[in-house]
Specification:
It is a single chain. By secondary structure, the protein is an all-alpha fold. The protein has a single domain, classed as de novo design (two linked rop proteins), CATH 1.20.1440. 77% of the residues lie in helices and 0% in strands. The chain has helices at residues 2-14, 23-26, 28-42, 48-68, 73-100, 108-114, 116-127, 144-176, 179-196.
């Protein structure tokens, strides 16, 4: 019975896509969810900013997934860069919101000390190899200042992790080459074998 349970557990683990194990991806999930909630609460429903913020948060998450599924390492690097750019745009929107609403931007230490949701989010992310379908992240704080500083902190963390991901992908590309380059090598090897026959 234990063997069957272990086999089923391993089978279930294999159904997850590779990007779902990345911290850079996992942190973008609450960023997207919280942004949807944030704009519902505090951004005018007819405002173009609302749509832009939601799209930037969504792009920050989905481009990592899309990039990871590409055969081409070059495309993965490009899409990870688009994800990073989208999150940078979102960061600027939150900074503008803070400025326009006279909200103080807290330093990193104060955010970690006063926004308990940061620790709770990371506890969920680190506890699970991949996020469950319903990760049960804590609610977005109702205090506007705390909510803005939570979002700024999460986005800065995601940007740091995305920079590291892009750096690792570039190194891999440098060491192993890209998809097109490897296809050409295989084609040359194939033609060489055919000529010898």
């Amino acid at each position: 019975m234990k063997y069957l349970e272990l086999k089923m557990k391993n089978k279930n683990l294999k159904t997850k896509a590779g990007y779902e194990y990345l911290l850079a991806y996992k942190i973008t999930v609450p960023i997207y969810d919280y942004t949807v909630e944030f704009v519902k609460r505090w951004i005018n429903g007819r405002s173009r900013t609302k749509d832009q913020m939601e799209q930037a948060a969504r792009s920050g998450m989905t481009n990592i997934a899309e990039g990871n599924k590409q055969k081409s390492l070059e495309l993965y690097i490009k899409l990870a860069g688009i994800s990073r750019g989208s999150l940078e745009e979102l960061l600027k929107d939150y900074l503008s919101f803070a400025r326009q609403n006279s909200i103080d931007i807290w330093d990193k230490q104060r955010c970690v000390r006063e926004i308990r949701e940061i620790g709770q989010i990371w506890e969920i992310i680190k506890k699970n190899p991949t996020l469950p379908d319903s990760p049960n992240f804590p609610n977005l704080p109702h205090d506007k200042e705390k909510a803005v500083n939570l979002m700024l902190t999460l986005i800065n963390q995601a940007n740091y992790l995305l920079d590291k991901l892009v750096e690792a992908l570039l190194k891999k590309h440098q060491e192993k080459g890209g998809f097109s380059e490897n296809l050409l090598k295989r084609r040359i090897e194939y033609r060489s074998i055919k000529l010898k026959q």
